[in-house]
Amino acid sequence: xxxxxxxxxxxxxxxxxxxxxxxxxxxxxxxxxxxxxxxxxxxxxxxxxxxxxxxxxxxxxxxxxxxxxxxxxxxxxxxxxxxxxxxxxxxxxxxxxxxxxxxxxxxxxxxxxxxxxxxxxxxxxxxxxxxxxxxxxxxxxxxxxxxxxxxxxxxxxxxxxxxxxxxxxxxxxxxxxxxxxxxxxxxxxxxxxxxxxxxxxxxxx
Length: 205
Fold this sequence. Notes:
It is a single chain. This protein folds into two domains: 2-154, Rossmann fold (3-Layer(aba) Sandwich), CATH 3.40.50.720; 160-204, no CATH class. Helices cover 41% and strands 19% of the residues. The chain has seven helices and eight strands. It has helices at 10-19, 45-49, 63-70, 88-97, 134-145, 156-179, 190-204, and strands at 2-6, 24-28, 41-42, 53-56, 79-82, 103-109, 124-131, 150-153. An eight-stranded mixed beta sheet has the order 3-2-1-4-5-6-7-8, with helices on both faces. Helix 1 links the parallel strand 1 (2-6) and strand 2 (24-28).
């Protein structure tokens, strides 16, 4: 498997490092000060877009601009993945902006640098095949499963409906708890420590 990671922010760098244990990974960032993690080769934008698979690890607000920028330079058969935490809107943009010969696999790794710091085994990975042959989808499903991830195949609208409850509620509680400025305590109960973990994961991941 050969994968190009477009974006070396906190999640992009983490994801690139994770995937590099089982794939050849190259990475590109428009910020020259962001280094690639160990095992990942940093390359220019043109070289990255020539990879067989390009995984976009950019903020959802930047997606339309990035898609319009890269679309004319992607060859037929290139696979584009996104990693946004909602799926319907990015899928619509990818369908509209990417050429017909470019394959599309929407994804949502439901973990990040904090929740995946001790490993990703058992954590959810959502895949939404958009423009992809079934055999190709199975390859990617098997690839992500090889990390021990729990891979779930969902339609974009089903993902967003479920995530509105599961992820939305967790992040809401985390932000509310963060406003309370909870501090670690030597006598904190297990339940209290779990609340602190919610704050750490939702505010940093």
